[in-house]
Model the fold of this input.
Amino acid sequence: MSELPSHFISRPAMPGAGAVAAFDELFDRAVSDGPNALIDYDLPWPRWQFVSHVVDSRRLIAHGSQNAMIERFEPRQAQDAHPFGNRKAVYGASDGLWAMYYAILDRATHPMLLLNSALRVELAGDALSDPWYFFSISQPALDARAFRPGTLYFLPGDGFEAMPPLSVAGQQVHIPQWASPEAVAPLARISIAPEDFPLLDQIRGHDDATVLARAKADPDGFPWLD
Done:
């Protein structure tokens, strides 16, 4: 594939077959305990690899939150420039790392403007590339290290609709954002600490006023960097 803009970063390497078997066993055991079970993660591999594998392999939807006690997700009206994300729905991601990013942001204490994206590039034969990411928060929030432990919820994919593909840098890309018009009950959940997020040190900071001015002048210029 041709090169994406340099501000995108790739997902770190995933583990081998031994880890995958252990991940599957742990998730199956947790789900058998009943709906929305809290997964007691005690495996030697990084937690993000477990989350990414489960979401990828089981076609689940992940939702990151600072609220550890959500029993049912109700549709809410979102505010988004893209029509897909600007409606009343339950939103989530078919990408574990992207959802983890939302789980660790302390937005209650530190107001912040989020700029972020996750995508997979469309390859020959309808195949998709490995994931690519961009993460940025308001510079004052980054300076304050506005991260704290949160929770990632695993939601069933039934009833969710995928965001249609977009064109980025001349390539067809798939954004792993999904929406459900109906309420959704989680299958399971897992605690996430900031240090569990492998791209924590690659989250950028930006000036809100500059970004908003550039976005107004060039709506398609994401992420409005220098």
